[in-house]
Design a protein that fits this description.
It contains 16 helices and no strands. The chain has 433 residues and is an all-alpha fold. α3 crosses α16.
Amino acid sequence: MSTGEPSATSTRRTIVAVFLAGVSVFLVLYETQGLLPAIRGAYGIDAPTASLTVSATNVAMAVFLIPFSMLAPRIGHARQIAGGVVLAALLALILPFMPSPELLIAVRFLQGVAIASVPATAMAYLSLRLPAKALPGAIGVYIAGNTIGGLSSRLLTGLAAEGLGWHGGLAFTAAVSLVFGLIVVWLLRHDLFTTSRVIAARESSATAPEPSATAPEPSATEQESATDTGSSATADTAQPPRRAIIPLRSGLWRIYLTGFLCMIVFGGSFTMLGTRLQHDPWRLSEGAVALFFLIYLVGTVVTTYYGRLATRLSRTSLTLIGMVTALVGAGLTLVDNLPVIVIGMSLLTGGFFLGHTGASASASASRPGVDSTRSAAIYLTVYYLGTSLGAWLSAVLFTDFAWPGVVVMCMTSLFAVLILTLTGASIGFKKRS
């Protein structure tokens, strides 16, 4: 970097800022998911319409991820992150005061637009601002912030709604999100008030190749390509692999579809879980339902140990194990017993994260002719579209067929992932001795 290595204090400030940005926006991403019965009763709407307060946000987020990733270098990554966290929190503050369900859904859509600005650029900002040795740990901290924010979004809102009503629950979560957002703005203040020209110069220098006093040598990739093809062509005729605008080669479409189907299961089951538990025979309160979202911590455990599992088993094997586990879990949730439901949802969650983590890593892995950054962005886009479809479709099925309808949707999607995995070529991780 032409600006020199950042100090330890600057590095810590950047990591903390991006961590809190993830917490702040994911705090408001799923804030209505545990309150759907209360929202439905307040506005006199059916379950599918109420579920749009979840789907609209995820659709907007999916649609605007790629545009925001392209906009960030023009306006500055820090400015985009700061603007997104503050705008998402401000929209969350006005959300409880919407007089109609149409306006409520519209504000939730706008929240999704604001939220998309953070995941679209956070990792790129870290790579520009941090030394290489600090980057892996920083990305892990950022992802942890997303997880904490997503869990707290359901948990805090539900617990606050227990004493303050659903309006108060939403307002409380919005206030916490805004506090974190303002801290993010303060931590990023040095970049926020830097001119666009300086930002562009710094970021271009960060990504520019190191100058060399000698003539450039062929890269390792070019050497391997020449060796693999057995070509005797000269360097003048060597061509870099052409990259598709929408990477679908090497079986990537199967990976995208796996993420999409997995999120239909995960988003749909958790969206309607609260509604089920607030019906007979339990009639649990919002606060009690919110505690069920602690099951998300199973996913934290699975993703933590996934790397170790991947050294022993292929991605295909791990995905198959995950889908079978999730199928067993989905079946157990049909039993009208709270401890059994907890076990079932835990198995479903663990199986989902086995499938999603492997698919996400495979979509982000480098391979000839594929832009890994674009591939990861496309995976993330279809991932959130799956959440949106799952939330809406599960509400429709629950209205007509109660919880068994949701389970059939989950099992159908899980079987589809099994078929995709069994019929597809091996991709991603390979078994290591």
